[in-house]
Amino acid sequence: MGYLQSVKESLLKNSSLADEIFFQAVFEVLDSLEPILQSDRIYEELAILERLVVPDREFKFKITWFDDNNKVNVNNGYRVQFNNALGPYKGGLRFHPSVNSSILKFLGFEQIFKNSLTGLMMGGAKGGSDFNPKGKSNSEVMKFCKAYMTELHKHIGPRVDIPAGDIGVGAREIGFLFGEYKKITSRYEGIITGKPYMFGGSLLRPEATGYGVVYFTDELLKLENKEPLKDKICCVSGSGNVAIYTIEKLQSFGAIVVSCSDSRGTIYDSRGLDVVLLKELKFNKRASLEEYINTHTSAIYTKVEDYPSGAHEVWSIPCYGAFPCATQNELNINDATNLIDNGCQIVVEGANMPSSPEAIELFLKQKITFAPAKAANAGGVAVSNFEMSQNAALQRWDMDKVDESLRTTMKQICKRVYLTSKDYGVDGNYVDGANIAAFKRVAEAMIAEGI
Ligand code: NDP
Ligand code: 2IT
Asked: Which of 76, 82, 201, 272 could form an S-S bond across to 197 if both were Cys, CB 3.0 to 4.6 Å?
């Protein structure tokens, strides 16, 4: 049996079926690595793959908190520290009812490779809780965040593990988490990124993931000699942090973004989305997208229950560029087929693992330019790293410096992925290009550090 196959089989044998989503992330990486594994036997000799697919440690803890009716609530809290070969553990926190240990392992595993691609000093981690912030009062969110930090603070530190945001965790939650860490430890240090600017956050961190997605897209279109974004119709799924800043930057490049979505439905506005209104609805009011049509009466809102069966409305709209920015496995084979049939030329992943394996296979087969998440959405964690640098030096960078550094980082990632796909004989396959380039750096560090 080949090395790859034996690693896969032993993983399947030693894990539960509930780990399906984690296996999806692992197998996608492993399936890319054949060319590099064949180039050097050292990876097999030093059991690099066996060591990479198991987290260094996982914490699971109970979180208890009082809601506004003085009822006691219990949630599960997690932090998965996956690999720190390249630097301290780094990765976001997700608060969503679907969160479990398998989802966090998939996200933590992806984070190792994404962080490697940035070329910066960061290992991979992820954490979160099955707490649902939706419909909770500000004081309930605060009480929950503080209860979560009473456990989490034992495991993090500016040179140990530095969390950040993800789904359901934005500046508000990060402020509460930071405040509680400070209270418990009396230390004012950069233990979390994505902080509000006034107490140590970086300019452009909120925008970084979405802006980075578009910088990456612009560079990739140039490398492939394809038409730029100007005047092109684009569709973006989601309407959270990543989606809204992707839309904003696409518009600044002259693209016409006609559709976005949330967990309840999709908006189609043929004249181009009103991003100021989107921010007001989603960031300030935390409202449903349905309210968009109260202001723009010619826009069309489609509820999730009215989507065509087995497909998502947002991907049924003809577009040049598709940007899945909501959640994992949100773009399936039917969606991929619709996009291709409607002439889509480029798919860039803003969310983590939003395309199903079958959808990716079809994009690659049909020679649609496909940019995988771990390369395209690395701008968020890159600016998190800039925030860590600013905190460590007790300094602040101005907007131009952060933006320039972000843009340079995204260009470098894009070039590295593009060239790696050529070097390893998988020209144009950026899934393999990203996985191989990322693996190479992590594996070299693991080899140099010994077992
Ligand atoms: P937010 O919580 O800000 O927004 C998430 C958006 O996705 C919301 O519009 C939400 O809808 C929608 N959504 C979430 N779950 C589902 C679902 N099951 N079905 C349909 N829609 C859903 O999160 P982010 O924008 O921060 O994260 C989006 C994606 O980007 C995630 O995959 C995350 O891991 C990834 N990412 C985030 C980074 C960051 O810096 N924040 C960095 C890199 C990647 P609703 O408003 O109805 O809840
Ligand atoms: O998936 C991701 O890269 C994030 N949620 C951001 C991680 C970070 O540490 O900024």
From this structure: 201
CB atoms within 10 A of CB 59: 15
Superfamily of domain 208-376: NAD(P)-binding Rossmann-like Domain (3.40.50.720)
Given 114, 126, 136, 146, the catalytic residue: 126
Answer yes or no: is the C-beta of 110 below 6 A from any ligand 2 atom.
no
Buried b (16+ CB within 10 A) or exposed e, 298-314: ebebbeeeebeeebbbb
- Superfamily (CATH H level) for 60-188: Leucine Dehydrogenase, chain A, domain 1 (3.40.50.10860)
| CA of 45 relative to ligand 2 center, distance in Å | 32
* Cβ of residue 380 lying under 6 Å from some atom of ligand 2: yes
Output the CA torsion 422→424→426→428 (10° steps).
-30
pTM strictly above 0.85: yes
88-109 pLDDT tens trace: 999 999 999 999 999 999 999 9
